[in-house]
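User: My collaborator sent over this chain with a note saying "see what the structure looks like." That's all I know about it. Can you take a look?
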Amino acid sequence: MSSFERRALTLLGIRTHFHEFSLRLKVAITQLPLVISVFIALPLVAAGSPETFGEPAFRLGLGLLAVATAASVAIPWDRLFVPAYWLIPLLDFGVICLLYTGGRDSVTGLSLLCVLPVFWLAWSGAARRLAGLLSFAGTVLVVWTPLIIAGQTELRDLAAPMLIPFIMLAIFGTVAIVERDTLEQQQELRAAKVELQESLLESRRSSTLLSAVLDTVDVGVLALDRHGEIILMNNRQVINHELTLPVGTTSFVEETLEIFGLDRRTQLPPHARPAQRAMRGDSFSDYVVWVGSGERQRALAVAARPVTDDDGAFNGSVLALSDVTDMVNALQSKDDFVANVSHELRTPLTSILGYLDLALEEAEDRHMAGPIPSALLVVQRNAERLLTLVSDLLATASDSLQLMLSEEKLGELIEIALDSAGPRAQAAGVELRRELAGDLILQVDAGRMLQVLDNLLSNAIKYSPDGGVVTVRAWAEEESVIMEVADTGMGMSVLDQLEVFAKFFRTGSVRKAAIPGVGLGLVITKSIVEAHGGLISLESELGVGTTFRVELP
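Assistant: Without extra context I'll predict from the sequence alone. Here is the result:
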């Protein structure tokens, strides 16, 4: 801001910081108090003793004041050496000396005007000792000049007004201390301002870089605060977000957003939607949902990680949403192929098993002995095993599961599953425990839920080769029923946990231990749970054990 602009703002009554003015404007403004004080004194002089205006010293003082004031405005002090503006307060001492000499009998207190140039010199902050000496000497000049002119030069006459110079010196010291402290504060504020500006500039650079990076990647990024409000969304996520709007609407109302399960038709309940799960503090990956409808429907794989504050409390969540439509369609084609092949295999296997049953019945009727009946039994066992595998392949390749929902007591289903798993657990040296919290009644497909329990219990027993404890827990929460199957077996690594629900996946430790299986049980289990509108997750530690958690609405 230029001096002219600052002066205009001051005249208009607009406040600006004094320390930001140019030196020339500061000098002019600092001269104003003396000018105003003298102009206030003039009517008093005119009313009390107008003859004072005839005094040469008084008139000379007014003239010198006019010269000093004009000089304070006209001289470009910024271009001169730093203490050059001391000329004005020194001239002011002369002004006060002449006014006091010519008008001290008319107006009481003219000598006190010395405080104004004293402030001047203290405010300058340059050569404080010399400035203090000049303040003292200037005040002595003011109070002694009338005495010397009047011939009152005795010691007692000169000592009488000396309190005033010492008071001025004290004022100078006080103002100088305050000025020094103020100057240090201003320097600290300037340094803080510069640091803040640099931080803001760096923050803008980082923000710009972050925005550029987020808008470059082909992944939607969404950041939510602790209240679920959106605080960051990149361009890709804006597109994903708009896909969830029903056609013809522009209002983002959670209940109406088009977010579907894997069947692409069933609306996900609020508690199962990615944002709601993230706001509960859940951490998950590869949670696939379908958004939108018709030709614009897309599949999104969602990952979420909670954000915590310094105290470890939940402070929001960050979600990454990847468009996996092409991948899902490719997997669907693969599933269709597997389903077709499995279907073609199932027909001859059913026929083979039928004829084997007939052959075994014939051998039994004829009381055949020898290796043929035992060989037929081996063929039958392997054919039945192969048929079970084909059935599992068909189940995992199907788009959706047909559920026969009915009102069931979860506790009874758990008891049935535990009874069924008892012989296998006893043979493996595994202890089965149950922790059930009252009657938990659900609308579920009893057969499918037994399949879930059988798969989870079978895995827990199978992957506890050295014995241990398998515990089934169930309890109710506000809007869901929670069921857990926990074992104390071999556990899984972090990398294995990421792939545990993938088809045909088996951990390295399981393969080394030669534990039988094809890696489809958990895939089927996950499909059944999600078909019921539920969620399945796990926690595991290598060498400690694994806990599978099923959440059902």
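A starting point for your reply to your collaborator: The radius of gyration is 47 Å.
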